[in-house]
User: Fold these one by one.
Assistant:
Number 1:
Amino acid sequence: MIEVDSINSFYGKAQILNDLSFSIAAGEVVSILGRNGAGKTTTLKSIMQLVRPRTGSVKFNGTEVVGSPPYKVAKMGLGYVPEERRIFTDLTILENMEVGRQPAREGVPEWSVDLLFELFPNLSERRNNRGKALSGGEQQMLTIARTMMGNPTCLLLDEPSEGIAPVIVEQMAETIMQIKKQRLTVVLSEQNLHFARLVADRAIIIEGGQKRFDGTFAELDAQPEIQEKYLSV
Amino acid sequence: MGLFVAQLLTGLANAATLFLVASGLSLIFGVTRIVNFAHGSFYMLGAFIGYSLMQVLPGMFGFWVSVLLAGLAVGVIGVIVEILVLRPVYKAPELFQLVATFGVILVIQDLALLTWGADDVLGPRAPGLKGIVRVLGEPVPKYDLALIAITPFILFGLWYLIAKTRLGILVRAATQDREMVGALGVNQAWLFTGVFFLGATLAGLGGAIQLPKGGADLLMDFNILAAIFVVVVIGGMGSLPGAYVAAALISILNVFGVTYLPQSTLVLMFVVMAVVLMIKPYGLFGREEVAGEHGQVGEPERPIKPAGIAVRLLVAFGIFLLALLPWFGSDFAQVLTADVIIFCLFAASLHFILGLGGLVSFGHAAFFGGGAYVAALLVSYLQTPMEVAFLLAPIGAGFAAFIIGWLCMRLTGVYFAMLTLAFAQLIWSLVYQWGEFTGGDDGLVDIWPAAWLNGTTPYYYFTLFFGIGGILILRHVAHSPFGYALRASRDSARQAEATGINTKRIQWAAFTFAGALAGLSGALFVFSKGSVFPTELEIGRSFDALIVIFLGGVKTLSGAVVGGASLEYAKDFLTRFEYWRLTLGLIIIFVVIVAPEGISGTMRKMAERVGIIRGREGDS
């Protein structure tokens, strides 16, 4: 579904991604793991074209996306949930979700406000509250709900477990499992190996903008030195 | 009582136009973060197009259809401007777009002159609403009452559009985080264009709807500009109810001002604005602007470094050539070059606070004109010797900057810019309306230099010495520890404060210093011309300096000087032609689009590419 082929991404003159390649199959849940500054967020942004890779190719369902503006990538069916949440704090929950709304898409179930409120009951109670009145966990849920309104076929989740209470993290894992049941492909970046293991089928470890490991969690467990080298703090 | 009510109604009727135009400006700013200086031009076009349509379409129906069509036509013009001029520069540094919109003003001025001629046109009376109605015995035009009745519907319609429709939700979301709106599948380019269409349409409607009251002329673009900025700022940027309340407030104050304080009509508006901003820094209904909330666009600032040997030699050679000018140049060349040097010093002093301090001031003319007036007043009233007056001018301008800076420092960004504009306008309107003391529109004349400087060549050397000297001092200070602190305050106020820099005080000091040097250029100016008029304090003078800084390159030290020299010589050349505004406007737009780094910045990039000077890797 996603083919990333030797991309090099930069911020100004600083190179963040270095010949990074991997592929994601339809229906997979893959976690991109790595320390702070390893290039996880840039990887997701490079798929979404929020950062344009200087060289290399990113194909989504066989179509090249490098060079397309982010809104076109979103319309192809890629849903992006940013790390810093970035909800529209002056808009109500319902209005936030309206911004993300896109027409139904073939092959995936159509989401509606009501369906998403079933998935996130907390949001339902506060549907007319402004974004700035929400807690961190609620904001995180709203970003996911907002992106789901676009009926994506593939979801890019940037560190969904970061900065929220452990109880909510479990709830978040539950939600991702539910989304997975709807035949969605999910790519999530994580620092939290425990959380990644809970929801993902496969792990890709990056460090210094390069891929260091790509395989199942069973394979990762068989190589404790990799964990030691690239994940332990 | 009757008179009071009648005046209240007149004020409210005038508010209709002001609200329409200002709400359009506010919407455009809210979403695109562009301060659209060309908004007054859209208003003027609405008036002229409406006038032409009304000649063709008869009767009451024709009148209102003309108003609507004029609005839509201006909306389409707005879209053309957005697509052709602004889209290419959205990624340019913040506030860069305003230079492009200034180019648009010039182009539209000449196009309007070409199309409708130089004569003012009298607006047709609205059919069916020609008479008056007696309100408590006082006559009130029927058309005024119609305007008062219509405005709330327009306000409601706009409010509904913004608050309740999907378009409105997207617009508000984009106001906060454009990139995220794009990542959610919304083509924000068209959202921007749509907002520009709406904003320009509102301005056009405002222009057409005021025809029966005011007609159309070629000066109305600048005449309304200050008022709509004041309205938007008092109401709060991006707030529609705010724009309405502020438009009503300003219009009513204006009507009463004309009756009771005829000498202060212009001053009043800016006094109200200054007071509101000092009490509520983000306007009556505005929201606090959080620095960096909208994401800094453009490249990060590059460090500047003292000039190398090659550049120093080049500059020394340039000064040497300038010193030789009286030997090979005519008197005219000397006067023109002196004008250029004076203007360059003025622009360089603005660049000091804008480029190095990150403080965008829209009112720097206050200190240029201020310095000129200080010297002129001293000479006129106290027969002060020229040398003393010349010395006191920068001190006086610096003192004014000290006070104004203190009042403005609490604000940042566009609000800071607007408050500086308000104070500059305040000083301008004081000078303009206090005729007995300042000479008003007639200015102050007979302000000649001392005998030993009387003559083109001696005064040319005097200008060369103080002008170049001032510019070199600015450069020197930029590389002093004070300059480092100033740049640190610009790039990261918080981190600068954490290292023990009192950023506000540093910026205040820089503002004062820049004001004093602008005053120095004003003093050079007044003694070279022998007279001074209120135009030296006008918005236009402040904008001149802003434009050359952006054209020259805001991120380079030499930008102000290069831009200043280019613009002054270009103007001298172009003003010989009839449609020089059109040409200059197109040149400005062209430079903005092809060389968003400015002339100086672009030349440096080219020099780096071919290896004349070393690039960023060479910086330590």
Number 2:
Amino acid sequence: MSKLKVATCSLAGCFGCHMSILDLDERLFTLVDLVEFDRSPITDIKQIGACDVGIIEGGVCNAENVHVLREFRGHCNILVSMGACAITGGVPTMRNRFTLKECLDESYLSGIGLVDAQVPNDPEIPLLLSKVHPLHEVVKIDYFLPGCPPSADAIWTFLNELLSGRPIALPYTQLHYD
Amino acid sequence: MSGELSFTLDNQPVPFQDGQTIMEAARAAGVYIPHLCFNPDFAPHGSCRVCLVKVNGRTQASCTTPAMAGQVVQSETEELRDIRRGILEMMFVEGNHICPACEKSGACQLQAVAYYVGMLASPFTYFYPRRALDASHPDVVIDFNRCILCELCVRASRDMDGKNVFAVQNRGIQAHLVINTPSGKLGATTFSITDKAAQVCPTGAIMMKNQGYGSPIGLRLYDRESVKIVGDVAQAPESAGGRRHE
């Protein structure tokens, strides 16, 4: 059987979920016997190819996030929303109760100790969306894996059940929102 | 058990005493029915609808429905689980329930019930409300963004503490918790951390100051065992029929 192709990326996240993937430790050796990583921080491949599974950490907070998310959806048969930020928007959504202008002003214009205060506007900086969104508000998501981050055990259970084609059921201690 | 009053809950006999609700009888028998606005120390409120069961085919709140002999009650069905999950999904989008940033996480009943009903993600659009915190009290801070309107603090303060500190204002989607003072601030009341009302919040809406993260992750109330096992059903006095879910 040819290996399944898996891509991963972090959008508006903290890379904590990817740290949790690394926490698989020696199980990573078993994993790479089963799957081949395409675009992922693990491989440093920048362009995603056709994949069986895409796993995304982090919500959607800027125009680039939308672009990457749509690219993943277009290239992956199965798209997995991993972690609190991908599933609910998470901590970054704490800005959603304010306007974007209020947030930028607070950070860049009225913050303490600022010199020559100005809001960054370099064209290479992706434009922020007015609100942070969970992934499933932008594209169809096939599976949700909660946690902040999901533990390595939860990721392991999830991947094993997914790869074996079984319905995914996490034990009680592996389902949590924090 | 002949001669005793009983009904069946998910095809198992549950004994009850006259005057008990389905929820109270189930709890005494050690059977968990998920709930949020119900608290065994208070008169039932029937507002959160999480404890919905089918009673002889009709959907009713088990916390307010009197137990009657011969009732056929269903709780753990796929249909009711879907309804309960839907209620939790709506609760999570109506407030700002950001578990990773909340001190109540791990010991939060809202979260624990969401785990129980298997909520992974909410399909509804998040409200992201902007409700100002009330940190005017020296010992307690109130985050109205986490309130689910169970009215347990309202009932506790009014019926047990005799202070009537809290109230719910307006109706429907406009309903929100208020503090019963001209300024609307908790600091202007006689509210104290020893009040029953300070202990009953099922979410992180009423939080103690000067303490936090007392239990490490992994050792918090709902970290290892489901609310079904370690929730208030665990403290219930046993009924004549004995316990099912120890």
